[in-house]
Known about the structure:
Immunoglobulin-like; 23 strands
Amino acid sequence: MPRPLIAGFVAVAISLFLAALSGLQGCAHVSAPRGGPPDTTPPSLVLVEPDSFAVVTEFRGSHGSVRFEFDEPISERNILGVVLMYPFDRRPDVDKGKRDLKVRPRIGWVDDRIYHIRIQPQLQDYFNNAIPDPIEHVVSTGLPIPDNRMIGVVYDRITGQVHRSARVDAVHLPDTLRYGLPADTSGRFTLARLPPGDYLAIGYEDVNNNLRADAFDRSDTIQVGLAADDSVTLEFRVFKHDTVGPVLSEVELLDSMMISLGFDGYLDPEAPVGVENVEIVSLPDSIPLAIDTVMHQSGYQAYQDSIREAEQARRDSLAAAEAAAAADTGGVAQEAAPPPTRRQAGREAPPAQEPAVAGPLPDQRIVAFLASPLPPGSYVARVSDIVNLSGLTGGGELEFEREAPEDETEEPPPQGEGAS
């Protein structure tokens, strides 16, 4: 072959290779179109086919899709991650056109099933303008679409505050079809238009973002019966579930008559505790000590608060009586400094955030009140049948010491002849 012809072939091959490489690089990065004024308006939905709440019996297997059309071109960025479809089995098939999305179940349409499609607010145009709110769409392949709903709030069981990044699933029984959605940033959710029947409703923290509750997720489960026109209110209190009962891990002497017993997990504050759950035995003679009462840490805290309030009320009463006596005698009562619990005007501290859920919060301690002061010496604390948040019972035993106070260990001064 002539040398000029070979050179021509080589030049053409290099040009084609460079053009292909440039095209690959261009596809790897989706950027805004150049030229013209900047676009700051997110895409707007202009048409959905078929309409929401439509019963579409011709959707079967891979035939048919729900089409969402927008008023401007939409970006390919993360397009498969922004579309969810329930009942959830896996991510749906999403075909993207210039201005539209066509969505269908990856496993195909099934007769007599209600489908929920949710487009997340991460969908955006080529100028990175994302839709402000999720798009919800419901269609059926045969079943009438009911007007029912599950509404409620997801709380953090430990703090009592609303959970700001929770999800809620409703698993239909017995076929285990799973519907769901994320709660909003106030922990609230509305899961509507579900097939009537019995459900296992699950509120959970989706740690690994796999759209299902795993054993390591903080969660709470409620059984729900839902009719076609029901509106059911749910309150989830999510926490990390234990697989074993609580174990005694610490003994702390609060004073000579109060012993705090710590555990390796959170206890159920509504499960009763009493003197039958705790035993304090002296060593080495194994003589049990009398216990007056046992309470959860929340009860102990309420007890301490009541003592402080009673003391403050006593001080206020004495101050009022002194002021009244001074007024009767014509004297001037010395103005007392305000108690430390009352703040000066203009120096108000922001109030502490109160738990959003009613009732006592869980803790990892109980407190035992002895019937008489604990003498110095060695002891063992035995605890049984203590219930944790998962409803499992446990306990354990630990040895501890009460050392003699310093004034009891000092040697008495010498007596007798020569003593001054």
